[in-house]
Amino acid sequence: MQIKRFGEKAEDFIFTPIEDDARINILHGAVRSQKTWAMIPKLLYLNQHGPEGLGVITGVSKNTVYDNVLRDLIAIVGDRYIKYNRQSGDLLIYDKPWKVIGARDEGSEKYIRGLTVAKAYMDEMVLCPESFFKQLLNRMSVPNARLYATTNPAGPFHWLYKDFIINEDMIKRGDLKSIHFTLEDNTSLSEEYKAFIKKAYGTGAFYQRFVLGEWVVAEGAIYKDCFGPENVFDDAEVEKRNLLGRYAERYVGIDYGTINPFAAVDILDDGDTLWVLRELYYYAIDTGIQKTDKELADLLVDWISPDAQLVIDPSAASFKIELINRGIIPFGLIDKINANNDVANGIRRLSTMMSLRKLMVHNSCQRLLEEIGAYSWDDKARMRGEEQPLKANDHLCDALRYAVLTKVSDWRVQT
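Above: the chain sequence. Below: its structure as tokens.
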């Protein structure tokens, strides 16, 4: 592994002695600004010279902690000195005990009840529930306990920003250090790569957050700054590129509903760009006829291409059983077709691909194009510190999000 020089802000953080750090230390700001990278040497120093006792490393899941943190840590130190059980989360760094814990939802705090924690690191802190974070603080009763965290920004109503990032009282008391990073703080990035990241996030809230590292409101139409006429193609483009003859894979994203709309999108993947070729939409209220799972399956079978890979709304249990009974889905592969329903990451993935012009929609998909234009943030949820899209006229957008987040690998939009 090639290790490049740290920027000045990262170096200051790394070389500050543990005893001079605050009880809570939060590195926040732009993507690829060296926040997580700076935590690798800090984590090793904390392991050797921090308070004695159990350490905890947490993130959205144990898998994300491994991908974001442990993979690089093991590559640098070597697996001779790091022993990790991915199932149990038990971790030894130079024979000192740590526990890796996923913090996906409000119920995750039960996993740290009863623990006595001396040191902790939270990855992607903004995605962790407030209850988990406060329970972790409660468990850190060892003298001189230290907590470190890295995060990209969210909105200014988020509990992390309101209660900690800008908490001047905690900062003055020395209980909190809040260190802000921008893209320019990472001196190892080339100008070409920085230009790529800026292009990937377009303009608006995503650009302000992930490039400038600002805690700003996401409001209004979600895709207004990243989707435009350049993302729409026609039959002439299909013929010019021979899309039907040269695609690498084909996906069908499905948002299931019987009373609510049943929606699907047919996507050609040429290995670089996704081309949404067709849409399928059935709404019982439009026709006055509510279709059964069997009738919806008939509709789908008549529409899909035989080589398409299905990606289905994870809540569509009865519909998946119907497809299994027909032999369309082998029983042993049912987990393979369940969609990743992470709304925030799905919206971010779609926005990035749209900005990079790597997600294109055929001009015949009129309902999908209307939904993309109208897809908006929920103002009421925002005031609660949550970011959610309005649940209205969003079924094709959801089907698209399911397919893209589930099937498109991270490296395709690596930012």
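The first helix runs from residue 8 to 15.
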